[in-house]
Specification:
The chain has 3 helices and no strands. By secondary structure, it is mainly α. It is extended.
Length: 106
């Protein structure tokens, strides 16, 4: 039991350190190619949100569970299509309230 908890804690620590190294490496590589910080951030977020879906789909494909792959793709697209307009509207509202002294929101 104690060994399992220790392995879990070490695994989380390595996961966090690996994620930091990945983000730092990706950001420095993109900056070397003169990519803007906004594009770097959006790309890292896009990869981070898509990687678990890809892992689940790949695992399901390897275990011949086509239904799981299809459900993952359809479910992902439904959520993206549903949440994108709401998040865009919410982001504009937040930006307008936070930066109302610097920019004119319309």
């Amino acid at each position: 039991m104690i060994i399992n908890v220790l392995v879990l804690i070490v695994g989380f620590a390595l996961l966090i350190k690996g994620a930091d190294m990945f983000v730092d490496g990706a950001a420095s590589t993109a900056e070397n190619f003169k990519v803007s910080k906004l594009v770097i951030g959006i790309t890292i977020i896009a990869f981070g949100t898509s990687a678990p879906e890809f892992a689940v789909s790949f695992k399901a494909l390897m275990s011949h569970s086509g239904d799981m792959v299809l459900g993952n793709v359809i479910g992902s697209n439904i959520i993206i299509e549903h949440n994108s307009p709401q998040l865009t509207i919410m982001w504009k509202t937040i930006n307008c309230h936070v930066y109302k002294y610097f920019y004119q929101c319309g």
